[in-house]
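Rotation project, supervised by the postdoc (A.L.). Task for the rotation student: set up a whole-complex structure prediction and record inputs and outputs verbatim in this book. Inputs entered:
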Amino acid sequence: TSTKNGLGATERVSATFEARISTTNHPLARKLLEIMVAKKTNLCIAADVSTTKELITLADNVGPHVCIFKTHIDIISDFSDDTLKQLQGMATKHNFMLMEDRKFGDIGATVANQYSSGVYKIVEWADLVTVHALPGDGVIKGLVSAVNGRSRGCVLVAEMSSQGALTNTDYVKNSSKIAEDHTYFVMGFVAQGSVSDDPRFLLMTPGVQMEVLNDNLGQQYVTPHAAVMDKGADIIIVGRGITKAEDQVDAAVQYKEAAYNAYLERVKQLQ
Amino acid sequence: TSTKNGLGATERVSATFEARISTTNHPLARKLLEIMVAKKTNLCIAADVSTTKELITLADNVGPHVCIFKTHIDIISDFSDDTLKQLQGMATKHNFMLMEDRKFGDIGATVANQYSSGVYKIVEWADLVTVHALPGDGVIKGLVSAVNGRSRGCVLVAEMSSQGALTNTDYVKNSSKIAEDHTYFVMGFVAQGSVSDDPRFLLMTPGVQMEVLNDNLGQQYVTPHAAVMDKGADIIIVGRGITKAEDQVDAAVQYKEAAYNAYLERVKQLQ
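Outputs recorded:
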């Protein structure tokens, strides 16, 4: 098999995060891997809260334990520019990346506007955004057209965790193809299982909870250990398991340790 | 074949809009068909403008000639509650429906929040919203959970007009199945060609321009006549062909007449 900077081109799950840094030229992928190694965390918090106060409190609580803080900025009821100012302050304080889970899914010309303008001006503050490959690669080109020299990247939602999702094998394969054609912007996938063995791409898996239950709107869960060991997740995305916990810090630490230990176990087992 | 209130269950393209009113129990589908008949228009404007003033001027200009005013509210840079108040005033003045082209594409619990809360509170003002079937039917259930007694509906984006879109035959078929399972909320499709022959569902086709050109971000265009006659569109969605025209009213009238005449021709030919 081909190699990328000395590392096998298909060794995503067996390589350490340290070793993967040199396989990618994407500045934010490198930065993210460095954060993960330095903070010993592969936990992304899904910050599904509805007020600025809850958002910033959560960021300050879980900040030391996460590598990515994933937002739905469009559900914050009292959003203002100050929300973003405080959020960026937390990102600096705790050294995590901001990912707006916008799931862009429109034609290029439209997503370029949705990314850069309107009330949220996402491109100005979110290091990363999530994107559906559904519209074809014009969605990537549209986003890139709005980046304007900033250090930005995206993660393709290759697979969804909800019941009856239409992200079938073909869909996953096509998403992977689009990622490979646009590695200057795409730095990974959101998926339930491995999309690519390429060590440049980070696999982020949502729908993770310690206790495996389903909600009543079609969401399906796996444990941190199963996500990382069995499904090959590099980063687990946890929402309600932490945000609804009585003690957010304690819950974040538990998820962080479960996921990072599973990663160490995986690498050890495969090497 | 089965019949629905006397009309063949597969006569979507051959039936008149008048005849289709009685085939559906969806209050907004009925209302929309009534508007289309009364105003003799099957034109939807894609209001891709970036300020409140442009939005309201466009609504007042093209209002008499459209059945749906399709917004991307998240690209309006000076958005405020007053934007919505003025927009709703225009909808009442000119008797058109408001459709927020949000392309919801997340799990049910998330879209419920995106629909009802945050800055835009879409459910409070948009009669219709667009939705990707990608997450499975939890996306529909999530939206419905936020409707709270209002008269609301959605249109499934079954197919995209952009180059390399991943909306293949299976995807279209699965979208159609989800629509059939949720006719109390889904009232039609956004697609490039016929998704269903069921006369209850309205087919809306984007990517329509008088002059057939592509933009440089993957968008592909068809003419109004081809969209309605050849592809079976009930409603054409026109953006830049009208918004960028020197005379918006003149352009709207031209698109309206081209599309409505094509509809009359189609029905005449098939009956």
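Student's summary: Chain B touches chain A through 54 residues (CB under 8 Å).
Supervisor addendum: The mean pLDDT of chain B is 94.
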